[in-house]
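REVIEWER CHECKLIST
Item 1: Sequence provided? yes
Item 2: Single chain? yes
Item 3: Sequence as submitted:
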Amino acid sequence: MAQSSSKRWRLTVLLLPLIAFLLLVVFLLRGLFSDPTELSSALVGKPVPAFSVPDIYDTSVIYSEQVLKGRPLLLNVWATWCPTCRAEHAYLNQLAAQGVYIVGLNYKDDSRSKALNWLTTLGDPYQLNLFDASGRVAIEFGVYGAPETFVIDAQGRIRYRHVGDVNERVWQQVLGPLYSELMREYERSSQADEEQQ
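Item 4: Structure as written out by the authors:
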């Protein structure tokens, strides 16, 4: 009986590392096939959070969450210290030239003058530019870092969150189709409102 118990103990000791190894492999494989740009957001499907921040150009102008309502738009979180933001900036300029409505949220820049120089030098694709020096607004949106882009509908609800740069592939495959769909809904709704008046 002691021998049987000893064999079971040895078998258990031998199997534990194997089981731990298999669990680790499953965990790593799951991570390997996940998309890091698709972080889930508790805010998707919900209204944008309340905020109050100044305009980057004129700090006496204060914006609230109301500026993110009324039409579909992209809210792009960017910063001058972010190399990926610089990489995506030219593409954002292209989208703005095509009529895509983009609001910028400048995130945790230590100086407004750096951000203003960035926009002067690289172009300003934003219809509005919010200055979030403390990062509080970004925290309310659940931002992990820059760049991040939110697709927001005309009612001010967050419809999608993209982590990472906006580039042609991301626009063609994900953001563009969603933005176009929201624009069609918005235009149909606006047309129906006009016909009722």
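Item 5: Key structural point noted by reviewer: The radius of gyration is 24 Å.
Item 6: Recommendation: ____
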